[in-house]
Amino acid sequence: MFDYETIRLIWWVFIGVVGIAFALTEGFDFGVGTLLPFIGKNDVERRVIINTVGATWEGNQVWLVLLGGAIFAIWPAVYATLFSGLYVAMLLVLFSLFFRPSAFDYRSKIEDPRWRNSWDWALFIGSSLPPILFGVLVGNLILGLPFHFDNDLRSFYDGSFWALLSPFALLCGVTGLLLTTFHGALFLKWRSEGVIHLRAVSTINGLGPMLLLALAATTLWVFVGIDRPEITQMVATDAPSNPLNKTVIAQGATWLQHFMAYPWMWLAPIIGFIGIALAWLLGKGDSRMGAFVSSSLGIVGIALTVGFGLFPFLLISATDPRSSLTLWDGSSSHNTMLLAFWITVVFLPIVLLYTRFVYRVIWGSVTEETVLKDSHTLY
Amino acid sequence: MFGDDIVMLSRMQFGLTALYHFLFVPLTLGMTFILGIMESVYVMTGKEVYKDMVKFWGKLFGINFAMGVTTGLTLEFQFGTNWAYYSHYVGDIFGPLLAAEGWMAFFLESTFVGLFFFGWDRLSKVQHLTVTWLLAVGTSLSALWILIANGWMQHPVGAAFNYETLRMEMTSFADVFFNPVAQVKFVHTVAAGYVTGSMFVLGISSWYLLNKRDIGFARRSFSIASAFGLASVLSVIVLGDESGYTSGETQKLKLAAIESEWETHPAPASFTVFGFPDQANEKTDYAIKIPYVLGLIATRSIDEDVKGLKDLREDSVVRIKSGMVAYDNLQKLRSGNKTPTVMQAFEQHKADLGYGLLLKKYTEKVVDADAATIQKAANDTIPKVAPLFWTFRIMVACGFTMLFIFAMTFYYCATRVADQKRWLLRMAVWCIPLPWIAAETGWFVAEVGRQPWTISGILPTHMSVSSLSADQLWFSIAGFAIFYTVLLTIEMYLMLKYVRLGPSSLHTGRYCFEQQHA
């Protein structure tokens, strides 16, 4: 079967796929939730907006759960270090996600306007805070985090929550929010008619340039302003996972040099920009599916840019470069990776197949008539 | 190593959030199956009232499911946030089980739950029925994977320590999957979930019958719940997880603690029904014993001993000493001394490495522990007896009370006089909380009984925590307390509101509150 080195690379790709699937699907759920209180001016309009994602948001959220589970299984050291190190930030993500299931399910169960309005804002918080925090997280992955391992491979975090909020990371947070909101507006436009459809179009029109600007600023900052550590002496790529066996120097190179060394990597940011720009141009016009697909492509490009830029690192330690985790020395055992590989190869297609079935069944524009007709069943 | 307060706060947070999550899980497990049964009857008979039943009980299920999803997220985050060393140490085994749960169970239930609610007009009858059953299968599969993971924590098989990566690694997935402790745990837990769903439907239907409203609707719900409940409660009791207590040292310790069995008695062991465990003096006061029964339960024979706590503790002393040798040789291996003598000594003792780690609580170096320290660590291997003794008995009492209720309701349903037995209906209403009490006490026994380990015999609890400060823990505990209290209040409010509305909440015009002004 696959040797240890190959399966480690395969899993780097797989986890990337799961991460991208999360960004693409829960991304538009977050966006729709963020836009809810602004695009929906009255109760029926808001119900229309909620029901464009009502039947499917739960399945989409599983990509996040699976992302956590896959990192636990494949890169246990990353899971342990990241979640415990960024303790307060992770709990804020969790707490904001708490708002979502109950907001969706409880909102329309009582007719009181104050009750419904409160849940709408709860859904707004639960949909806008996570993308900001995930953006900040990605920013800090790029900057490197202050952590180290002791000899028992216990990880210690040497920073604080507030230190995560550097200007660069905050810019990434804003970009994250703009990205999901833009993506969500495109989805909403696709699945709605009339006044909501028109408001979605004008949102796309307004957000497009802001998002492109934010992306340009982030990209420029990364390529010009941020150093990247370099591994000077790597252990074999099929050796047992122990990060302390390698030697790393901090600030070995810049991101620009890294991309210059492998010019084909430029494809990723190019796809990212073209995808988003195209989505904006198409989204302003009549295109529904085309614009949404373009922005999905843009998100893939952005995710690949980060992944390529970090490769082979998973977590860079800013304070103890040797403790940095790479896909070669932060993984689980060969056995476990093969087991998880087979489970994924069997179940990923099945999941995609029935997810497609569900979308096909519920697909179609959600309108005020739909909501009023099934008033006691729909969200 | 870490202050006791960090360990204590981490345990408290995990315990509370896990018990809280398990307020919603068993009802989800049970309700999805009951919905599947009701809808099957609907598809077979074509009677609308069964469709209304699926929709109404489905509404209550939905209110509960949202909380299950919310609180379930916490648990996935929490292994990493609060038990980072645990995650590093056993992620190789525990992680893939969680990932498998994601692929096979979470996707299934979460993808189809939307269709269950919103797919009525878009699917054929049989298609919708399939969706409902897939939802039920998904929830039970979820229980399967997480209980295999938990079973592995109770009785770790199919894994070995790797000195190069300093963690446990999976050696046999088949051993992990077919772990006998995990398998009985799965059956016991899902059946307990089915009981919870049945008790919920039975109790609420009884309340409608007592109030003489929605009789046809309530009577049909009542019969399904009583039949399904009887089958389930019998499974819980007969296939109880007691049979799992025979495998492995720590499981034996747990059993002895549950029975407050300090001494090893000659076979066949008697069962202590009642008594007052006295941890300090290591005895049980006022014990009422039934001869033979414990021997039968624990060994399925009348000629095997059941070891008492004191003897089990002596076994721990031996293993701790062996663990010190393992630890000593591990240090040598890591400093580069890989001579055959060291390798061989390590291999020979590495099964006891975890027992050596118990000493870390008292001495960082482990190998310098004296006899008194070893004794202290051995004492730690005995869980607190009294809480286990009592919670176990509360669980069993709840179980048998429910057996009585389901047996009676089933009998009276069969003889078609259930509506007239008002004492039984009243009892069913009052006993709605019992399955939750049983489930929560059951988890208490399972998890507190495993102490001082997170992974029995492998990794002590005090080593498993993250490198956090008490402030961070207080922040998260306060956050959980606030969110969970507010959410539970809202959930209970909605649940009671919809229970009172009953099937009239479907707005079909056929039910109580609707006929007068319809």
UniProtKB/TrEMBL annotation, chain A:
UniProt KW keywords: Cell membrane, Electron transport, Heme, Iron, Membrane, Metal-binding, Transmembrane, Transmembrane helix, Transport
Asked whether the UniProt record includes Ribosomal protein among its keywords, one would answer no
GO MF, one term, reads: metal ion binding
Topology of the protein relative to the lipid bilayer: Multi-pass membrane protein
Name the major location. Answer: membrane
Q: Which residues cross the membrane?
A: 12-39, 84-100, 121-149, 161-188, 200-224, 264-283, 295-316, 336-355
Gene Ontology process terms (BP): aerobic electron transport chain
Name of a matching Pfam family: Cyt_bd_oxida_II
Please tell me one Gene Ontology term that the record gives under cellular component.
Answer: cytochrome complex
User: What InterPro entries does the record point to?
Assistant: Cyt-d_oxidase_su2
Where is this chain's protein located in or outside the cell? Cell membrane
Give the UniProt family note. Answer: Belongs to the cytochrome ubiquinol oxidase subunit 2 family.
Cited PANTHER family:
CYTOCHROME BD-I UBIQUINOL OXIDASE SUBUNIT 2 (PTHR43141:SF5), CYTOCHROME BD2 SUBUNIT II (PTHR43141)
Q: What is this protein called?
A: Cytochrome d ubiquinol oxidase subunit 2
UniProtKB/TrEMBL annotation, chain B:
Q: Name one GO biological process term.
A: aerobic electron transport chain
Question: MF terms per GO, please?
Answer: electron transfer activity; heme binding; metal ion binding; oxidoreductase activity, acting on diphenols and related substances as donors, oxygen as acceptor
Tell me which InterPro entries the record gives.
Answer: Cyt-d_ubiquinol_oxidase_su_1 (IPR002585)
What is the recorded membrane topology of this protein?
Multi-pass membrane protein
The portions of this protein that span the membrane are 20-44, 56-73, 93-118, 130-148, 186-210, 222-240, 390-412, 424-446, 473-496
Listed GO CC annotations: cytochrome complex; plasma membrane
**Is Acyltransferase among this UniProt entry's keywords?**
no
RNA-binding: present as a keyword of the record? no
Recorded protein name is: Cytochrome d terminal oxidase subunit 1
Q: Which organism is it from?
A: Methylomonas denitrificans
